[in-house]
Design goal:
The protein is of the alpha/beta class. It has 4 helices and 8 strands; from the N terminus they run ββαβαβββαββα. The chain has helices at residues 92-109, 135-144, 164-169, 199-213, and strands spanning 64-67, 81-86, 114-121, 152-156, 158-159, 162-163, 177-182, 185-190. Strands 1-4-3-2-7-8 form a 6-stranded mixed sheet. The protein has a two-stranded antiparallel sheet with strand order 5-6. Strand 2, helix 1 and strand 3 form a beta-alpha-beta unit. The longest helix is centred in the middle third of the chain and has 18 residues, at 92-109. The model is unreliable at 1-5 (pLDDT under 50).
Length: 214
């Protein structure tokens, strides 16, 4: 038997032999986790380090409210060293910065012979008739200002178009300022040309206060 092959017939296609590709390196193992980041050091000279949250002597205590519309509030500041920190004005960011600094100073200086009071406008704490709000509403207002941890909060009323304590009594021009009282008398005051009273800006007057009690 003879097979005749047609020379014009298609030849079978032979697939090429697969060639080995380049070797893929194995993934590198992930490095072990490093130590947690170190918190920034508290480098404010001449000031005690602020206690951690929950470790301050009065942490968790409500603020101590004083109504500046009464004639008896100066008696509270008649003895010892007091730092009165005023926070207010149309610039809420500057006022917030000042309130935070006052609270930090209060927690740093507590038990060291220096007491801190935050002074804010009374208008946010009074009814249209000029009386103080109900206790629940007062608490809400104090919480909104983050007044806490036993901080003394003094309410400054408006009289004759001026803040009765900040402007009329202590002749402070700027809404954010500070006064050091020793036995009820002004020893030094500070007020920035603009902006809030940051902790750094309050540092010199706080140092003066510590010098008085050493």
């Amino acid at each position: 038997l003879v097979w005749l092959l047609d020379p014009g017939a298609a030849k079978p296609v032979v697939p090429p032999t697969p060639q080995p590709g380049p070797e893929v390196p194995a993934p590198l193992p992930e490095p072990p986790p490093g130590p947690p980041p170190t918190p920034a050091p508290d480098v404010l000279a001449d000031l005690p380090v602020e206690p951690a949250a929950g470790e301050g002597e009065l942490d968790g205590q409500p603020p101590r409210l004083l109504d500046g519309a009464t004639g008896t509030w100066p008696e509270r500041f008649a003895e010892g060293a007091w730092l009165l920190v005023f926070a207010g004005g149309p610039d809420e960011e500057a006022a917030r910065l000042t309130r935070e600094a006052a609270l930090s100073l209060h927690r740093r200086l507590l038990g060291r012979g220096i007491r801190v009071a935050l002074v804010v406008g009374r208008s946010a704490f009074e009814t249209p008739a000029g009386t103080l709000l109900e206790p629940v509403e007062l608490e809400a207002q104090m919480a909104a200002l983050e007044a806490r941890d036993g901080l003394t909060l003094l309410l400054d009323p408006r009289r004759d178009g001026r803040d009765a304590i900040r402007e009329a009594r202590y002749a402070l021009r700027t809404p954010n300022a500070a006064v050091l009282l020793v036995n009820g008398e002004i020893e030094v005051q500070t007020q920035p040309p603009e902006g809030g009273m940051s902790l750094k800006r309050l540092q010199p007057i706080a140092k003066r206060a510590r010098d008085f009690v050493r």
